[in-house]
Recover the amino acids of this structure.
């Protein structure tokens, strides 16, 4: 990263700390917001948060590594997460998984070369009455069919 | 999507001016009314709500907190999602009433990260109550200040467990604490904290509006009132239903349009699997308790595949803090895979079942204590079918 980008990130983080406060209980909201804006929380961001909250960077990393939604690696523009828990499984999530893999040309756990799409499984989304369900970033899509998935992907372009 | 059948408690008219009535009462009288109603926690464990509130109300502390548990991570459960969408204001009012009753000034809603898309709706409902002076300073002219803050989870099922939830609110890894001490004694930042499920809190304004006796008379002697049930799986009409406690499985299946049913998972992944032959059993704390999830399986389903899905869930969601749960769930999942390949001896299967019993007793929190439930119940009830290929 360029020096100027780093200092931009530092400014952004100090604004977030200003907004949420510098107590330990603000750690998660701050990390969640960084995650939402950047798609991941870089090592540098973790250190900067630690510095401003006056806690050890290992503490921050311990929190980041605990929560499934907080990521350290760069993620794609569209992070697609398909629910794999029982009710979606019964509602034929397998056909959706197959469609996603075919259309994106990647397997679950992978990112497309152009970093536009990443594909993951997720546990119960609470959409069990409208399965199969998936999230694209924070948006929820329900009652999926292979056709519907193709349409949704088309509309992302 | 609203509640699909005729509601019992969750009809808008039942809430009337329960909130205003409550704020005219003495705080302790609210606690007594809730205790009288027989309301028990709807998050799964079923602890009497009035008793919990009484413990918090009588505690002397500089600060007290309330946490509305909207983590709703149990597979097959989505009734809190419906409540937070359709009855947002009643949920908030329940939190405020609890605050008034126990003498707290701050409530948190811990909303699962998966429900991030609801944030705006909930925040605007909070704003609306502020504009109406039902939240904030000197609520409805009384000497009572209260604020509600919305906090998000980040994709960890275990954070629904109340002590893990508090750890998470404090900015830590969501690892459950030893209990006791219970949150009501030593909770958020070490202060007395009432943690209640969304449904538990939302019920309170209706109880205050129509009275404890009205509520007590619904349901059974040991399970007063009604329960929201999220129904999914092989049914014609999936969705949320409100039923009186004591409703028979038979009637439930009919209501949701279940045909050719083989098995029913009650209480989500951590619940129990029963055979569809057990039609006369009923939904209640005394027979089949549930935090609100029912998943129906028809005769085309392979029970071992279902069990595998549950065990994979627990292996992923165990926080890893204690050995029985961290290793035990892996062993149970390995066992399922061995059965699938026809490689699990019956003697080893027996050992795994007894490992499950050990996990129930020795795990630190409810996750590890209940994760063997599907393993034990599915292999006990459907063992013959599963081992038929042996
Ligand atoms: C692994 C685990 C997950 C839980 N998840 C939830 C949840 O999502 N929502 C909830 O209300 N209670 C959940 N609970 C139960 C809570 O620990 C706690 O008992 C409950 O929030 C108390 O509220 P109640 O008395 O109103 O039910 C969970 C418990 C365990 C062990
Ligand atoms: S039982 Fe499981 S989830 Fe609970 S503390 Fe132990 S390892 Fe963590």
């Amino acid at each position: 990263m360029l020096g100027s980008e780093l200092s931009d990130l530092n400014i952004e983080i100090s604004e977030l700390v200003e907004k949420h406060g510098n107590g330990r209980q603000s750690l998660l909201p701050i990390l969640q917001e960084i995650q939402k804006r950047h798609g991941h929380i870089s090592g540098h961001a973790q250190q900067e948060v630690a510095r401003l909250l006056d806690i050890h960077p290992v503490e921050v990393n311990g929190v980041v590594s605990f929560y499934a939604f907080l990521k350290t690696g760069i993620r794609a523009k569209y992070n697609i997460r398909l629910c794999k828990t029982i009710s979606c499984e019964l509602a034929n999530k397998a056909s959706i998984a197959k469609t996603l893999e075919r259309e994106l040309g990647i397997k679950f756990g992978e990112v497309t070369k152009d970093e536009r799409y990443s594909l993951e499984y997720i546990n119960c989304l609470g959409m069990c009455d409208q399965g199969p369900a998936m999230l694209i970033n924070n948006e929820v899509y329900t009652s999926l069919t292979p056709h519907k998935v193709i349409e949704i992907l088309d509309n992302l372009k | 999507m609203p509640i699909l059948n005729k509601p019992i408690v969750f009809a808008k008219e039942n809430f009337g001016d329960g909130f205003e009535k409550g704020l005219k009462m003495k705080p302790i009288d609210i606690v007594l009314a809730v205790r009288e109603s027989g309301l028990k926690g709807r998050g799964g464990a079923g602890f009497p709500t009035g008793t919990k509130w009484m413990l918090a109300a009588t505690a002397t502390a500089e600060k007290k907190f309330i946490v509305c548990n909207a983590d709703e991570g149990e597979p097959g459960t989505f009734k809190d999602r419906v409540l937070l969408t359709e009855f947002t204001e009643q949920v908030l009012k329940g939190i405020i009433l609890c605050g008034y009753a126990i003498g707290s000034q701050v409530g948190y809603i811990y909303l699962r990260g998966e429900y991030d898309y609801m944030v705006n709706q909930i925040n605007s409902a909070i704003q609306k109550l502020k504009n109406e002076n039902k939240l904030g300073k000197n609520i409805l002219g009384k000497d009572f200040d209260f604020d509600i803050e919305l906090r998000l989870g980040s994709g960890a099922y275990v954070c629904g467990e109340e002590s893990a939830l508090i750890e998470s609110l404090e900015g830590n890894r969501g690892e459950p604490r030893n209990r006791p001490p219970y949150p009501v004694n030593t909770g958020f930042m070490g202060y007395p904290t009432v943690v209640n499920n969304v449904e538990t809190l939302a019920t309170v304004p209706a109880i205050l509006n129509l009275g404890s006796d009205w509520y007590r008379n619904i349901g059974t002697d040991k399970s007063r009132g009604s329960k929201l049930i999220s129904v999914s799986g092989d049914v014609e009409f999936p969705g949320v239903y409100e039923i009186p406690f004591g409703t028979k499985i038979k009637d439930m299946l009919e209501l949701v349009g279940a045909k050719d049913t083989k098995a029913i998972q009650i209480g989500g992944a951590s619940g129990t699997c029963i055979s569809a032959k057990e039609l006369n059993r009923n939904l209640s704390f005394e027979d089949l308790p549930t935090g609100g999830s029912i998943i129906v399986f028809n005769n085309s389903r392979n029970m071992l595949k279902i069990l595998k899905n549950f065990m994979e869930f627990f292996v992923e969601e165990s926080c890893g803090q204690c050995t029985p749960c961290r290793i035990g769930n892996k062993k149970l999942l390995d066992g399922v895979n061995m059965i699938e390949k026809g490689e699990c001896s019956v003697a080893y299967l027996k050992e795994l079942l007894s490992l499950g019993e050990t996990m129930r007793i020795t795990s630190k929190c409810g996750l590890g204590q209940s994760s063997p439930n599907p393993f034990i119940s599915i292999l006990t009830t459907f063992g013959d079918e599963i081992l038929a290929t042996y």
In short: Residues 3-66 of chain A form a domain with the Arc Repressor Mutant, subunit A fold (CATH 1.10.10). Residues B 41-45, 47, 69, 71-74, 158, 160-162, 195-197, 200, 365-367 surround flavin mononucleotide (ligand 1) (CB under 6 Å).
